[in-house]
Every structure is written in C-alpha cells, then in structure tokens.
Amino acid sequence: MTITIALDAMGGDHGPRVTVSAALSFLAAQQEARIALVGQPGIIEDELRRLGVRPDERLEVVPATEVVRMDEPPAQALRTKRDSSMRVALTLLRDGRADACVSAGNTGALMAVAHFVLKTLPGIDRPAIVTALPTLKGHVHLLDLGANVECTAEHLRQFAVMGAIVATAVDGRERPSVGLLNVGVEDIKGNEVVKAAAQLLARSELNYIGYVEGDGIYAGGADVIVCDGFVGNIALKTSEGLARMIRAFLKEEFGRGALTRLAGLVARPVLKAFARRVDPKRYNGATLVGLNGVVVKSHGSADAVALRNALEVALREVRHNIPDRIRQEMEPPPQRGLA
Amino acid sequence: MTITIALDAMGGDHGPRVTVSAALSFLAAQQEARIALVGQPGIIEDELRRLGVRPDERLEVVPATEVVRMDEPPAQALRTKRDSSMRVALTLLRDGRADACVSAGNTGALMAVAHFVLKTLPGIDRPAIVTALPTLKGHVHLLDLGANVECTAEHLRQFAVMGAIVATAVDGRERPSVGLLNVGVEDIKGNEVVKAAAQLLARSELNYIGYVEGDGIYAGGADVIVCDGFVGNIALKTSEGLARMIRAFLKEEFGRGALTRLAGLVARPVLKAFARRVDPKRYNGATLVGLNGVVVKSHGSADAVALRNALEVALREVRHNIPDRIRQEMEPPPQRGLA
User: Fold this and answer.
1) Which of residues 121-160 of A touch B (CB under 8 A)?
2) Hey, what CATH class is A126-282 in?
3) Is there a contact between B183 and A230 if contact means CB atoms under 8 Å apart?
4) Which of residues 247-276 of B touch A (CB under 8 A)?
5) What is the pTM of this model?
6) Does the distance separating the beta carbons of A250 and B269 come in below 8 Å?
7) Per-residue pLDDT of chain A (339 residues; tens, 9 = 90+)
8) CB-defined contacts A:B, below 8 A
C-alpha cells in the first residue's frame, strides 16, 4: 500500500533547503512512500533542480502561496493565511489526498491550524503533542509537550489513554504502564489538577502506576508519562539544553591540549557510539495525537537527517493506524439488550 | 566572627553516618565555623566515637528525641514532632544560638517547620527554594524548586526579587539579569500566571530580560530564572535523571570490550575533569529563601562530600547576610515630608 505524506516544504528554520533533501533521502529508503512537497513552487523547483531531481509519481509539488512565519501568532496564521503551505498540507490530509502531514513550522500555528482543519477525534477535547524519549531501559512516550499550557484532570486522563494507545501500537506493549509526572511520589504531593487526575487514572482501565518524578522520565520505569503541556515543554527543552551543555563540556575537555586531543582520538569511536544513543535527531518528530489524521511536528531547527526521522515517524504512525485506534477506544460501547 | 551552623544530624537517607563525617570535614576546612549536631545523642555520640572524635567548643551535640521520617507528611511532622532534630535545629537558629540551619531531611516537612518556626520576612508571602546550576557561561540561580506548587504572579515577582538579591550577594552582580521560565519567548506564550508575572516584572526595577525557555536554563543567558515550584522541581529532577542516564550510557559504551576499556583508560583524566564540572555534589545545597534566617536543604541521598557542600552554601549565605538584604529590599521606603 502506498502511503502519501504531505510535507510542509516551507516550514522550519531552513525551509526547502532542508525539507527537499530530507524528502529525497526518505523516498530513497521507503519504496512504498510518496511525498507531496507543499509550498511555493518556484522555490521548491529551484531546489529540486539544484539537486538534479524532477517530480515524478512519488514526488509531487503542490502549490501554496503563503508561508507561516516561525514567530507568527497562531490566531493570525489561522485567520489570515488560508493558502499557507502548512494549511494546504493539512487540507490534503483532511481530503484523503495524503495519509499524514509533516511540518517543521511554528508549533502553535501547526496546532491551531491542524485542530481547525482536521478536528479532534470523538471523545478527545484537546490534541496533545507526544514524542518518544530514550531511557535507561528503552524509551518512554511523554505527553503533552506543549500543545496545552493549561489542562484539566480530564484532559490529562485523555492524554493517558492516547499515550497508552501509541505505546501499544508502536512498541507492541499489551498493557503499557502509565505514570503521572509530579513533584513527589506520595499521595499528598502535587497541585489540585494532578491529584484529581491521579484519581481518574486510578479508576480507569489503564495500567496506571502512580506518580513519577522528573528523574523518573529517564529511569525507564514507565512506558507512558503524562503531564500538562507547560510542564512537558519545560522538561523536554530543559533536557535539550542540558544535553547541549554536556556535549559542549565534553568537547571543551577533550580540546584542552595535545594530550587530551589524543585521548579524544582514541576514545572517538566510543564517544560516537555514545552520541548516537542520545542524538536528538534520532528522536526528532513529535506527533500531534488526538486529531483526525496523523500530523507530525519536526523541530524547527532540524537538518535533513532529523527531518527525515520525522517523516519516518509519520510513516510508522500511519502504518499503526493510531487515529483509528484512538477512535475505537474512545467510542462508547454499543448499547445491547435494551431494545 | 564565629559562625554556628545547626545541622539536623538525623536527616537524609543515611542520618548520622553521613552528617557527622560531613560536619568534621567541614570544620577542618572552615576554622571560623562551629557546628551544633542536633539529634539523638546516643547515636550521634556512637558515630563520633567511631570516628575517634569528641565534642569540643566547635562541635556541640544538641539533643532532640524525635526524627522526621523522609516520607512523613509535612503537616504531621509539624503537629506531632515538636522535639524532632529538624525542629530543634530551626529553633536554635530562631533563638540566635545558631546562624544557619542545614538539613538533608524531608523537603516538605523542612519547609513547613521552617516556615512555622522562623516565619517569612516582611513583604514575602512564601519562602522559595533556590539553587545554583551550572551553565555554559557560569551558573544560574533557579527558583522556586518545589516549595510552592501553585503560585500567583505576585509570588513569582517576589521570587525574582529574592533571586536577584542572592545573585548580587553571591556573585557580586550589580544588576543581575532575571528571566521568567516559559514555553516560548513570544508575548502570547504561557499560561495566565506567567503572563501576569511578566507584566509585574517588566514594571519592576529588576533587570528583567523576558521569557526564557527550558533550554535557556543551561545556555547561561540569565543570572536568575524564576518559575513556580512545580515546574522548577520537574526541571531540576529531569536534569538529574538525564545526567544519570548520560553517565550510565558513557560507562556502558566504555565498558563494552577490551578496546573500549583501553580507550576509557586513556580518556579517564579528561572524563574525570568533565565529570567534576557537572558533578551534582558540587551543586548540592539549596537555600530556603525568604525566611528569617538561613536554611539550607541538602539532597536526601547526599553523601558526606555533597552534604559538606551544603554546609559551605550555608556559611556563604550567612556571610552574605541574605535574609537581611531581602528585608532591606522589601521594606517600604521611609515616609518623608508628610508629617
């Protein structure tokens, strides 16, 4: 079965210079995939020409005249840019002309436009952003990462249901463990929303394991960890910042003098193997879950390697049929025997 | 001038086995310091005997019959344990028999008991927990780290004032830059409390530099970063968890085989220099700021090296006279010319 991904070719800090080459390398590896490059045809075609490639049945250019800026307010993007590459890509998905949409554009705008164009699945009040992060034991699905800065307990419960479905689909976990991010593990810890969410989760059919503290994210004790979008975004970005600092410190220490540089040379294969394990590029591609369709957000600063990973995430989500699984889970059970 | 620190000798995961030897190594290095070891005299004296030391004019044992458990609810610790080592240590500080109090005990209980025994400074509604974290350019003072899981904009403003005073006192920064932790840097980002706090800070006399994202903590662009205690606690513990995972991955990669172990041997001095720069022990010791007195919280799992660092933090805070500086800053300006 051919899977078509609508790629917002104008999105991200680098636009077509990155999106087009990511698309080509993805298509070379995934023979059953197609890509619709959505954006300003002149710029996209220049880039294709530069790379010596022509559109074909697996690589289509779909025109969109406008571009949502990285710092544009979501409401403005939604109201005024009806022909943006982001919106046209999402419309292809809504109309069944694509199976997924990938964008490295402005997160808030992508969220707002995707919500407007695709709508949420029945039973889901708010879409959430979820991604897999490495842990000591494998990886964990963390959500919400910034779609909803203020959440109710019921929102957190819905995020938990969606996270568990993602973990089941992607990792084949039958009853994935679900933790709730909190400032302590005792019952009395946390704010009112978190405490109320804990009660909802304890009563649910999920494999709820209780509160998880910040350091529990990377310890690997939970398959899914749920939090509001403010907290999730801070946890994710703090991690990115710390990883960047650690890389810089390592580089500095190995660069101090002739002897340390020699040591670095000897240790290079090991350091490279280490770096691969925590490479943020490998973890690029967060899903906007809870919508009628697969939408994947790439980091704005993604290079072609990282963006290609986001395309792989989208392909996987389509194959696992995540939106349909959520729809089935949230559907009220059929009424029986009452008629 | 002799500075006396009341040390909750029973606090932390290891109690006197760690607190007593931390006290001794601290006293050996700081000739003008005294320590009051507060707790169950039998256990403390056994430990002193084991280490071949007797109390003297610089090392006093102050009896307290009860111990606050690490998982004890703060309200219970406050109500029922009037003779706990934690409370007696704080009372020594209140009564002027000590200049600071250090505890590795239960954070919530320490907060509650310290608040009750010492009271907050005039103009401060809530004490906050602040610590220095390493950054690419030096370090940053982050607060609140978990004392207040729900905050108003005014609380955040008070945290900013206190953080700036700490940065000025400790680092000698004349107008320390203050950032507000948020999920984006644009005006429209964040929840209502953060947006309202931004307005208060923009109108204040602080050197307010605007929103800082999670990755900005370690980038070193701000001297002080302010957030509510829920978010701060998650940011701090997430960092601890990630650092632990990175250490484990490095160790695993260097331990894979004979060649990688050899590379590890060659790189060891460099890796050690690196590890020192991010060693959490060097950053152990968070201050409960906003109280009538210097109170420092050590990590519960601290070993003697880490706990000694918390004692050093307390000594520094006493020397810098942080509570008095906050009192002066928060005092209403004298009324003039109206009489």
Assistant:
1) 134-136, 146, 149-150
2) alpha beta
3) yes
4) 248-250, 253-254, 256, 260, 262-264, 266-267, 269-271, 273-274
5) 0.91
6) no
7) 899 999 999 999 999 999 999 999 999 999 999 999 999 999 999 999 999 999 999 999 999 999 999 888 899 999 999 999 999 999 999 999 999 999 999 988 999 999 999 999 999 999 999 999 999 999 999 999 998 999 999 999 999 999 999 999 888 889 999 999 999 887 778 889 999 999 999 999 999 999 999 999 999 999 999 999 999 999 999 999 998 898 888 888 888 888 888 888 888 888 888 777 777 777 788 999 999 999 999 999 899 999 999 999 999 999 999 999 999 988 766 665 544
8) 191
Identify whether the C-beta of residue A122 lies closer than 8 Å to the C-beta of residue A327.
yes
Phi-psi region of B150 (alpha: psi -120 to 50; beta: other; left: phi over 0): beta
Residue to mutate among A140, A230, A250, A268, with most B CBs inside 10 A, is: A230
Which contacts (CB < 8 Å, 24+ apart) does range B173-177 have?
A: B173/B223, B175/B207, B176/B141, B176/B207, B176/B223, B176/B224, B177/B207, B177/B208, B177/B209, B177/B221, B177/B222, B177/B223, B177/B224
**Reported CATH class of domain A1-124+290-339:** alpha beta
Chain B residue numbers with beta carbons less than 8 Å from the beta carbon of A213 are: 233-234, 237
Pick the CATH number of B1-124+290-333 from 3.40.718.10, 1.10.3720.10, 3.50.50.60, 3.40.50.300: 3.40.718.10
- Where along chain A do its domains lie? 1-124+290-339, 126-282
Superfamily of domain B128-283: Isopropylmalate Dehydrogenase (3.40.718.10)
Chain B interface mutation, best of A188, A233, A240, A242, highest count of B Cβ atoms under 10 Å = A242
What are the structure tokens assigned to A202, written together? 């304890």
